[in-house]
Amino acid sequence: MIESLSLLGAGGHPARGTDFTALDIRTTGLRPGHVVELAAVRVRPDGTVAGELSTLVDPGPGVPPGPVALHGITRADLDGAPAFGAALGSLLNLCRGSVVVAHDLPFVASFLDSEAARIGARVPVLPGVDTLAAARTAVRLPNHRLATVAPAFGIAARPGRTALSGARTVAQLAVSLFGRHGFTFASPPVLPALPQFAAGPLRPRADVPAGEPGWMAEAVERVAIGADGDAYLDLLAGVVADRHLAPDEVAALAGLAAEAGWPAERVRSTHERFVVALREVAERDGVVTAAEARELRQVATALGVADAGDLRPTADGRPARVLVLGTTAAADRLRARVLAEGVQLAKKLTASVTHLVADPSVPANEPRLARAAELGADVLDLHSAPVALGFEPPPAPPAPAPTPAPVPARARLPKVVGGRVLMGAGLLLMFFTVVGMFAGTPLVAGIFFAFFAVGALLGGWWLAEPAPR
Question: In principle, which of 36, 152, 220, 393 could form an S-S bond with 336, CB 3.0–4.6 Å?
């Protein structure tokens, strides 16, 4: 149903004039099974939203909805929702004449293919782009989950539980990748000719905005563990980011892992490595608060990890917290580097921000610049930020010019004597020139001899000049 396109950083076919339709889904499991929620957002190259689609999808009478504790969709929510075949026409209508984008496109495409095959639908191949792979090429991050990539690209809205919130974030990410990051297509995308399909009734789910992220959510953004695109790890990180890990959520995770064929040892090892990585993030900035230690131990206990480590809470100190303002690719790369270095990346200006970095796209009268200074934060530019934040060593001072070695007095003696002799000759020649001028020597001849006299005086002075100390 979807064919992944190859991208180039530059030199390919530009995406100018190309619309993108971002997809996101909620499913019954990690393996291709049933889609229980489908969302799509179409955007133009300038980021203007051209249309949205969101609906719950009934996988069939009596089919379980999957991990309710994770995606929040119950069997009762699905009763009366359209089947996948009834929603497919509306989806294809929105995708017509555009390039499909999704974060972890192979995962999304595998479920859509499975659903289309189940109902025997023949769908033309749509060109698609995997924003996960593109983001991995654009910036270096500890992980490239959508919830981590979004703040690195300056996308304010965090993806929440619903597929629509995820699709909106992917749409903005695609605009950034093909806009300021300059991605191009390796070959022109072939857009299939799609007829106008009959649009059936839809049942959208209420989109609840994601809450303000706590320490655990920000710590998960800085966790470097697992392979990008690992759907289980993405679910695990998303659940942990909510701070409180409930028993039903742990049970749902275990069920998904078992359904995907993961042995218990692999699940246990993943949980252990995840908790260790969280602990490293907590300790990296030199400050571990009592609340952070308590949250980490709660997560470790819920995941069945025996010990979170000997965390030592400290009340003193203030971890670095960086807010980067700007809409350039350089600002995105700095935001990504802040996360890669294990430093907290702020989403907005608060009293806890220690450094504010502004790129050239931020006007000088931006109110947050003055407000940051009032709050005691260091206001930096992109050039000075890596050094001020400790990511790079300060530039080495220029080497002093070499001091010429003093010339021994004995070696200079012939030069000094020669210079004084030459000065005497110059004075004598000047004397005879002046006398000759008064005696009637032609003016031209006087000037000629005076020139040589002055030259002899200057040359002698240079030779006899004292050596520098």
Answer: 152
- Compute the radius of gyration of the chain from its Cα atoms: 36
Cα 281–chain centre separation? 18
How many helices (DSSP H) and strands (DSSP E) are in the chain?
Answer: 17, 12
| Rounded Cα–Cα distance for residues 358 and 363 (Å) | 9
Q: Is 210 left (phi over 0), alpha (psi -120 to 50) or beta?
A: beta
CA atoms within 13 A on the CB side of 286: 6
Where residue 325 falls (left for φ over 0; alpha for ψ -120 to 50; beta otherwise) is beta
**What is the rounded distance in angstroms from the CA atom of residue 449 to the CA atom of residue 432?**
9
Whether the CA torsion 452, 454, 455, 460 is positive or negative: it is positive
For tokens 């304010």, what's the residue?
156
The answer to whether the CB of 183 falls within 8 A of the CB of 11 is no
Beta-strand ranges (E) seen in 13-119 are 19-27, 35-43, 49-56, 98-102
Can you give the length of the chain in residues? 469
Please name the helix (run of DSSP H) or strand (run of DSSP E) that holds residue 329, with its range, or none: helix 329-340
Please tell me whether residue 345 adopts helix, strand or coil conformation: strand
CA distance 118 to 113: 8
284 contacts: CB under 8 Å, gap ≥ 6? 222, 342
Q: Which residues of the chain have pLDDT under 50?
A: 228-229, 468-469
C-alpha distances out from residue 329 to 139, 159, 182, 288, 391, Å: 9, 21, 9, 33, 19
How many Cα neighbours within 13 Å face the side chain of 371? Answer: 11
The dotted CATH code for 321-388 is 3.40.50.10190
Residue 410: predicted pLDDT = 58
pTM of the model as a whole: 0.82
For 268-322, how does the pLDDT look when each residue is reduced to its tens digit (9 = 90+)?
Answer: 888 888 888 888 888 877 677 788 888 888 888 888 887 666 666 555 556 789 9
Per residue in 159-198, pLDDT (tens digit) is 888 999 999 999 999 999 999 999 999 999 999 998 888 8
The structure tokens listed for 387 are 């050094």
Rounded Cα gap, residues 248 and 245, in angstroms: 8
- CATH (residue range 2-194): 3.30.420.10
Place of tokens 């908790």: 275
What CA–CA distance (Å, rounded) separates 300 from 287? 19
DSSP per-residue codes, 122-176 = --PPEEEEEHHHHHHHH---S---HHHHHHHTT--SPP-SSHHHHHHHHHHHHHH
The domain spans of the chain are 2-194, 212-316, 321-388, 409-464
pLDDT at 469: 43
